[in-house]
Amino acid sequence: MNTATILNIKTSKSLKEEAKNIASELGLPLSTVINAFLRQFVRERSVTFDARLTPTPYLERVMEEARREYKAGESKNAKDFVAHLKSLA
């Protein structure tokens, strides 16, 4: 017999609202998402965090500059890069 129970946890109001909104965007109630995490935790007996990070504006600029340099043929090869690092030591 599978009886539902209530699980109370403490979390910030903003985290709860953000999680609820994301779950809603995916068409899921937050309780379904939490139950899926709990089932995975029990099944695998481990905790896995997948943090998909959003690049900062600075990193976006650096990556765009690297793309432009690569397309223009201005990028250096690995050998040049290693030589540069050695010159800094």
TrEMBL record:
<keyword id="KW-1277">Toxin-antitoxin system</keyword>
<dbReference type="InterPro" id="IPR013321">
    <property type="entry name" value="Arc_rbn_hlx_hlx"/>
</dbReference>
<protein>
    <recommendedName>
        <fullName>Damage-inducible protein J</fullName>
    </recommendedName>
</protein>
<comment type="similarity">
    <text>Belongs to the RelB/DinJ antitoxin family.</text>
</comment>
<dbReference type="GO" id="GO:0006351">
    <property type="term" value="P:DNA-templated transcription"/>
</dbReference>
<dbReference type="Pfam" id="PF04221">
    <property type="entry name" value="RelB"/>
</dbReference>
<dbReference type="InterPro" id="IPR007337">
    <property type="entry name" value="RelB/DinJ"/>
</dbReference>
<dbReference type="GO" id="GO:0006355">
    <property type="term" value="P:regulation of DNA-templated transcription"/>
</dbReference>
